[in-house]
Amino acid sequence: MTDATIPGDLREAFDAYERAIVANDLDALDAFFAPGDDTLRGDTAGLLVGHDAISGFRALRGGVPPREIAEVHYRPLARGGQAMASGADAEESTDGDVALLISVSAFRGGGRGLQTQVWQRIDGRWLIVAAHVTPRTPALDRTIWRSVGDPFLQGAWEGPLAGLTVAVKDLFAIAGFRIGAGNPTFLEEARPEKATAPAVADLLRAGASLRGIARTDEFAYSIAGDNVHYGTPPNGAVVGALPGGSSSGPASAVALGHADIGLATDTAGSIRVPASYQGLWGLRTTHDLVPRQGMLPLAQSFDTIGWLTRDGETLQRVADWCLSYDGSASTENVYGASGDDLPWRFLVPEEILACVEPDTRTAFSRLLAALAASDDPPPFRAVDSGDLDATFTAFRTVQGAEAWRNDGEWLRAHPGAVGPAVAERFRVAAQITPAEEASARAALEPIAAHLAELVDGAVLIFPTVPGPAPLRTADVDAVRAATLRMTAPAAAAGLPAVSVPLLTVAGAPVGVCLVSRAGTDIALVRLARRLAALVGAGAGR
User: Fold this and answer.
1) Active-site annotation holder among 105, 222, 252, 270
2) Max Cα-Cα span within the chain
3) Domain end among 108, 134, 160
4) Has residue 140 been placed in a domain?
5) Is 108 exposed, middle or buried (0-12, 13-18, 19+ CB in 10 A)?
6) Using alpha carbons only, what angle is made at residue 324 by residues 323 and 329, rounded to the nearest 5 degrees?
7) Which residue among 103, 169, 252, 276 is the active-site one?
8) Is residue 246 annotated as a catalytic residue, yes or no?
9) How far is CA 406 from CA 188, 409, 512, in A?
C-alpha cells in the first residue's frame, strides 16, 4: 500500500511528528511516543527500552539535518487487537488499531535514511510504540574520531601485532599531524609534530596499523567522556550511557569494533573507567614505565600510558611487546619484574568497597564466592586501604596544580575556549597555592608507601567503579566523586592496575580492578586472564 491508503488521522499524526523532529520539539516528540516501559526505539547504536530512556536520549541528541520525506509505506497490522487483512477499510480506526509505517528520508545534504515505526491507536490518539531509525551512511562518527582511515597509518607488514588496528587518543604526537587535546581552538593553533611518540611507534613497529586519531575529553581533565565541541562518543555496551573518559574516543572505537587496541592515558582513572563502563580490558601501566615523550601532559606526577582491548589475549600481546625489553625500544628494562607470576593471593580494600553501589557490591560478593568454590581457590583477606577522602584531596590538589602549570597560560589567553565543566576544574586548579601543593605532596608519601606495602605479597581486588555507566542525562557529580576515590589510590602510588569485565549489574558491565606492585604489569595481565578463566569468563574475555 502507498501513503494514499493511510488513515487520515494516522497521516496527520505522522506529519506532526516529522515537523517536531525537524524542529527538535522535545515536548511534542515525547508526547508522540507511548508512555510506559514497553516502548522501543532502536538505531545503529542499539536499543532503548521504555519512554523515559528514549526521552533522555533525545534530550541530548539534538535535531536532525534538514530533510524531506520522499516515501511513506503503510501496512495495517491489527484492528482492535485482531489481525487485520490488507485492504480493510482503513478510515474506520478504533482504539487498538496497529499500523506499520516505513518512510524514506531524503537529506538536503545528500544521502537517504529509513524510519520504521509501529503506531497504535491509544485513547483516541495514534502513538509510536516501536521505532527503528536507519540513518544515512556517515563518512565517520565525529564523536569518536578526529581523523580516521583504513588504515590511517600503515604499520610494519610483519610482527606480533600484525593485522591489529589502533585508535590513538588525541594526546599523542604523530609526525606530520597536530595534537588536538579535545579542543578545536587548541587544534587550530597547534603545530604539526616533527616526530611520532614512542608509545605510538612501538605499536607500528610490531605490525599494528593506526586506524585513526580518537577523541578525548578536553585536556583529558574528566572521567565522564563527554565533549561540548564534538559530542559524546557512544557507549558500545550500554545505549544512552556515558562512555567514560577521558579516553572515551579510543574506548568507544574498541568497544564498537572500529579498532582492536586503544592507545590511551590514565591520570585518575581515564583507562579504567571507560574500560569498566564499556566492558573492555584496560591496563594502566606502572608510572614512568612507558615514557611519555610526545604525549601532552595533564599532571606528570600521575600521568601514565596504557591500552584498551576487547579481550585479555590481545591485551597480553600488546603488553608482552610494549613492556618487554626486547619488544620496546622505549621502555626501561623492567621485564624481569613481570617475568615471574604474581602471588595467587588477593586483598579486598574495605574503604574502597564502601564506595560501591549495593547491586555492584552484591555482584562482587558473588564473584568472590565463585572463586572460593572453584578448583583453584585463592585466599582472600580484607584490608585497610587508608583514608580515601585524604587520598583524593591530596591527589586532586597535586593534579590541579600541575594541570594549571601545563595549561593555565593557554587558558588565560583563550577565555571561553573550553566547556563549563572543564573550565570550572581549571578555575579551582588556578587557586592552589605552592604551600597547598607542597602539603599535598607530603600527604601522598605515606599513602603511597602503605599501598606499596599492601601489594608486596598480594594483589588488591575490587570493583573498578561504583556501578554501571550512568545515563548521559544523569547527575554525575556524586558518581564522579565516588569513582575518583576508588581510582585515585593506585594513581597516587604509581601502581599498575587492570580493569577486567567480570561483573554484570542490571544488564550492564562493571569491571573488576586488580592492582599489583610496581613493574609487574605483564604478570598482572597474566593473572587477570587466569582469574577470568577461573570464573568461566574464558581466557580471552
Assistant:
1) 270
2) 82
3) 134
4) no
5) exposed
6) 85
7) 169
8) yes
9) 18, 8, 32
Same domain, 101 and 149: no
Residue 152: all three cell numbers together = 590511517
Identify the CA nearest to 471 among candidates 239, 142, 259. 239
| Catalytic-residue membership of 169 | yes
How far is residue 6's CA from residue 91's CA, in Å, rounded to a whole number? 8
- 258: part of which helix (H) or strand (E)? none
Residue 339: predicted pLDDT: 65
Same-domain check for residues 160 and 76 = no
Rounded average pLDDT over 261-280: 98
DSSP, collapsed to helix, strand or coil, labels residue 330 as coil
Expressed as residue numbers, the domain containing 255 is 145-534
Burial class (CB in 10 A: 0-12, 13-18, 19+), 89: exposed
pLDDT at residue 325, as a whole number: 56
Task: Match 597509518 to its residue by C-alpha cell.
Answer: 153
pLDDT digits (tens, 9 = 90+) for 232-246: 999 999 988 999 999
248 is catalytic: no
Same-domain status, 158 and 114: no
Q: Is the peptide bond before 463 cis (omega within 30 degrees of 0)?
A: no
Beta-carbon-side half-sphere exposure of residue 531 (alpha carbons within 13 Å): 31
Torsion of CA 92, 93, 95, 101, to 10 degrees: 160
Reduced to 3 DSSP states, what percent helix, strand and coil does the chain have, rounded to the nearest 5?
Answer: 35, 25, 40
pTM over 0.90, yes/no: no
Q: Share the mean pLDDT of the chain.
A: 92
Of 93, 209, 222, 246, catalytic: 246
Q: Which three cell numbers stand for residue 433?
A: 597555592
